[in-house]
Amino acid sequence: MNTMYQTLTVALDERSYPIHIGCGLLGRAELWRPHLNPKMGAVVITNTTVAPLYLDKVLATLAELGCPAFSVVLPDGEEYKSWETLNTVFDALLENRCERGTTLIALGGGVIGDLVGFAAACYQRGAPFIQVPTTLLSQVDSSVGGKTAINHPLGKNMIGAFYQPKLVLADLDTLDTLPPREMAAGMSEVIKYGLIRDPAFFSWLEQQAAGLMHRDKALLAQAVYQSCAHKAEVVARDEREAGERALLNLGHTFGHAIETGMGYGSWLHGEAVAAGTVMAALLSEQLGWLDQAAIERIKALFRRVGLPVDGPWLAATPLATAQRYLELMRHDKKVSAGILRLVLLQGIGQAVVSADANDAAILQAVQAGLAVAPSVLSVPPTQI
Known about the structure:
Layout: E1 5-10, E2 17-22, H1 29-32, E3 42-47, H2 51-64, E4 69-74, H3 83-95, E5 103-108, H4 110-122, E6 129-133, H5 136-142, E7 147-152, E8 155-162, E9 167-171, H6 180-197, H7 199-213, H8 217-237, H9 252-262, H10 269-286, H11 292-304, H12 318-329, E10 335-336, E11 339-340, E12 342-347, E13 350-354, H13 359-368
Parallel strand pairs: 2-9, 3-4, 3-5, 5-6, 6-9
Antiparallel strand pairs: 1-2, 7-8, 10-11, 12-13
Helix pairs in contact: 3-4, 5-6, 5-8, 6-7, 6-8, 6-10, 7-8, 9-10, 9-12, 10-11, 10-13, 12-13
């Protein structure tokens, strides 16, 4: 077994925390020890997919550390990132008489990480929590930076808090059991870092796409490390998204409209972000910032890793669909003083937050980024 690992730090003064990236980390008790209080115990919160694979390993490590623990197993899926599921967590915490010092451990992908982080932020006004991401998307993005939330029928991630974990433990071995569709969805967020701030990384991804999708551990370690390094740097400078951190939302405003409009869980987050990023690129082209060659490179890389580049229809015609996108986008967190701000590209590796695009331009970009036929209506990308 490869026991090497790399460590990054998210530098937030007294709230700084490490990100460990490597193989076999779930059983490395010495990595867990500094971030647990065995006297206060822990609760491992996971889902029905991850629990049979990794819950016993985590509980065994906690037992080795003399930390009493119990588990909560939630249903799996974006549609369960809700108030009802959050209350299930609170019920378990209260029934087991958990205290403010009890550590909540999020074992799973982005849904579990976001929901458990929000539960930790709320429970007795703040309990410690640890992120143990088991999907590529959560390892490179959602587990890092302290964004926690649940969804609302009118908008994704609209109810939440900024609340940092004590530790992020990204065990690359958990990617061995990740379904191909989830693996592709995670690559969407990896590609994002190249698009917004690192053209050399984007070029490296173009060269290494096949090896990454074949789950070459050395390549994955490099991709996860580089992605986390970018995010840690941005979060350290702009924890609460007052400026630079908004760039991490490339494609997300369009993508969240897809997720909300299609129904949570129909399209995976990374799939929606990929199609949304293409729409953002098409809008950037309209503004004269991006050329056709760059758009083709973006589309080609998304296709190479198995991601959609065309958005779904949300209504019977392209125009009605575009109007529905715009309506949903106006519920996004990037709306400020009634103005929709979008992350756009002035080149590969050069993202900006802009309010320059008017409604007509956005509607045109959405229509240009739709699938050629309405067959995508309520059909996940892998079934098209």
